[in-house]
Amino acid sequence: MKILLVTAHPRADSLTLAAAKAFAEAAKANGHEIEIADLTAEGFDPVLREPDEPDWSDSKKIYSAAVRAEMARIERNDATVMIFPVWWWSMPALLKGWIDRVWNNGWAYGDRKYPHSRAWMLAIAGSSAEAYAKRGYDDAMRTQLEVGILGYCGIAETRLEILFDAIEGPPGPENILVAARRLGSEF
To answer: What's the total number of domains in the chain?
Structure first.
């Protein structure tokens, strides 16, 4: 299977990108092909401007060349995996802007659904699972990301994995890398 692996982190030496590498290596070992979309390194513009604004009266709208190129990149793959840090109990604005601009009406929802039946999100969280559960952040993220984005776009197999303890010290970061490898091998 060809997997589009999408990342959004400003530092090349981040735990997020290390987790993406661990996931990719394990998935490749299982025979998958990986195409990396490092939105930061590529300089993707996340700002939704008029040419890419959904037109609710025209589901066949032709979007900008940049968005059509991203749509083509998605379409040449069979699945999507997004790996990102949790910021404000969600994804970075860069990744959200990629979804806002590219996963558009008439292509990812509306008359057509997102072209992949499988999309996963691996969210790297700073604090513990207990801290998230205490305030319901984990459930809020599942509703927003798994239901509100992936489900809304008609994706049959969705998965949001929140990988906790990124900034709590050892063994948190190593556990995140182990989990990313395990998830890559399960894909």
So the answer is: 1
